[in-house]
Design brief:
Length: 258
């Protein structure tokens, strides 16, 4: 190859990328995407754990130092290498698990007494409603299947599935065999009431203004829906919105099966 031809080839490589670069570039993209996905997943697990255990009120002084130390410890645990049980930095669940415990590792993969666990009785709660002098008490629905939906007014997917929830509520209102119960998280009645009126929603809604019920149910995604059987136990959980009325019909069939 002449010097002129060599220069022309170099220019072409610089403009279009050499064959070697073309072969390695897709690999770099794949590795970068995998790393970003891994970091995002790990961060979500840490945030869920910190939110579930963070103190409800601001702290200061020695309490603040203790809280900071606990948070740093949780972050260190999330980044720790996997132990003998294969769980990276996570507390070890009781082995073997007790009957009815969270075999599926609900939300963060750890069975926590007093919190929502698959197969266990759903934690009870009593919340004020958006209308004055109204309340929503989960105990009032004993003996019924309950679709328990956690949502917020700012959540676009929540808004998308609301008509489906309303249709399910109306379909079972007369029979009374299934109840749709919604819990709005961290928002006041002044914000929630107009939203319900705008969409024509009539199913019961409780206001979890301090997020304590959401913490008990380990909510990290909106919307999140729990399916409760007629015995009050948690049958299933869905993170994300229902995409069609058919999906909700399938959920209802699951909850109402003999």
């Amino acid at each position: 190859m002449s010097a002129e031809e060599h220069d022309e080839a170099a220019v072409a490589d610089a403009r279009d990328g050499s064959p070697a670069s073309s072969r390695t570039r897709p690999l770099i993209y794949v590795l970068t995407a995998a790393a970003m996905l891994g970091v995002g997943f790990a961060s979500g697990r840490v945030v869920a754990r910190l939110r579930a255990h963070a103190p409800a009120a601001p702290v200061s002084g020695r309490d603040g130092e203790a809280t900071l130390a606990a948070m740093l410890g949780a972050l260190k645990g999330a980044a720790a290498p996997a132990g003998a049980d294969g769980r990276a930095g996570m507390p070890t669940a009781v082995v073997p698990p007790a009957a009815g415990s969270d075999m599926g590792g609900l939300s963060v993969g750890v069975v926590e007494p007093g919190m929502a666990n698959l197969g266990d009785l759903a934690p009870t709660f009593r919340l004020s409603g958006p209308a004055p002098a109204t309340t929503v008490d989960l105990a009032d629905y004993a003996g019924k299947a309950v679709l328990l939906n956690f949502w917020a007014t700012w959540c676009v997917p929540c808004r998308h599935e609301m008509p489906y929830l309303q249709a399910l509520h109306e379909a079972h209102a007369e029979a009374g065999d299934l109840a749709v119960v919604a819990v709005d998280v961290d928002e006041p009645a002044e914000l929630v009431a107009p939203y319900l009126a705008e969409l024509g929603l009539t199913f019961p809604v409780g206001l979890d203004v301090d997020g304590q019920v959401a913490d008990t149910y380990r909510i990290g995604t909106y919307p999140t829906t729990y399916l409760l059987g007629r015995d009050g136990r948690i049958m299933s959980i869905k993170r994300g919105a229902y995409g069609s009325p058919y999906e909700l019909e399938q959920a209802a069939s699951l909850m109402l099966r003999p």
